[in-house]
Design a protein that fits this description.
The protein has 73 residues and is mainly α. The chain has one helix and no strands.
């Protein structure tokens, strides 16, 4: 029975070694996709925050050039 287990283990290792480059390539591709999607999401959030900040200043009647901090804490 142990001979069968050794043969099975060798077969699994050999098949796994053939598939390893393919698995690593797929993992790398998935990582790149995830990274690009996170970057796009962060850029979208930054633009939305900037628009919201600009809209709130416009509602108060100030612009970035006119806005001067009072210096008070």
């Amino acid at each position: 029975m142990s001979e069968l287990a050794v043969i099975l283990l060798v077969v699994i290792v050999l098949v796994g070694m053939k598939k390893l480059p393919e698995l690593m390539r797929a993992a790398g591709k998935a990582t790149r996709i995830l990274k690009s999607e996170m970057k796009a999401l962060n850029e979208k959030d930054a633009k939305a925050h900037q628009r919201q900040h600009h809209t709130s200043r416009a509602a108060r009647g100030t612009t970035a050039k006119q806005h001067k901090p009072s210096g008070r804490s």
